[in-house]
Amino acid sequence: MFLKDALHDADVVLICGGCCIQPPCCNSLDRDLFFYNMQHVRTSTLACAQFCPQAILAVQTPPVDCNYALCAHTLKVAGVYDKRKVLGVNAINAMRANQLFCSITGADPSKNQTPVICGTGRCTRVPVFSAAKAGNFPQTQVDCLTRLVREADEIICKVKSNTEQGHLSIGFSTARCVINIMRGLFEGPTFIDSALVEQGDPGKCYGMPVCATPITVGKNGVEGYAVPNLNEFEKRLLEDSKCDLEDMLNLGRCYAVGDEYYLHPQKTCPCIEWRPCQICEPKKAVKQK
User: Fold this and answer.
1) Over the stretch 13-35, which tens digit does the pLDDT of each residue have?
2) Could you confirm whether domain 1-289 is CATH 3.90.110.10?
3) How far apart are CA 241 and CA 208, in angstroms?
4) Which of 195, 232, 252 is nearest to 45 (CA)?
5) Where are the domains of the chain?
6) Closest CA to 111 of 102, 103, 122
7) Cα(first)–Cα(last) distance of the chain, in Å?
């Protein structure tokens, strides 16, 4: 009942919080987490559509891939969707990738950017270390850093041994993202290292209509998309991650518009062979003696 006063004439709305289930995973647990948090995101989105339809909505409630789609399609149903003003916060992944890269190379994290593309989940985030001016960076170290970025939530959970997920880092990176959005709105075009958005031209973004990339935010919302070039390793990783992102986006969309959800066909175990049932012949009557 307080949402009207809180949201009236807002310029930026951050949808965050919700339940956390440990350890996070790209399969069943992410879906379980979505079912816990979807009503929170949907209620907030409906309130934004009514009381501040002009605001930029930044979705940080996990799983972001699903909840971004839930938010976007809920706004579409309400008739107030603007792709320039809805984004999924991917700041923590970009910050971790940049910090890990700089800790090995000795570069200054404040003067370096390491993009994370595709999605925000464990199996959808693709760090692009080739764009971080790596030079002669051994592939073995790239493999190690990529695994650390993708499994960071689980690793932190094991290290802390108390089901924490690095809340201070997530809070810091999210706050910095929101501050940059505000600067873009009121000061001038501002660069954000990574956010899940609907792309202006999917053909220029690996053929993906929705993808996390570096963006530029201006007075009208997202104004520019910086799509990094990928090396062969990153291209393979992106191709492996696409179906997971499509599945997560479809899950959020289905619960926004009321469609029935089906698991992405590429996520079905290849060991299972679905064979049509054989048509049995009618059983012949047996004469009793």
Assistant:
1) 999 987 765 544 434 467 788 99
2) yes
3) 12
4) 252
5) 1-289
6) 102
7) 81
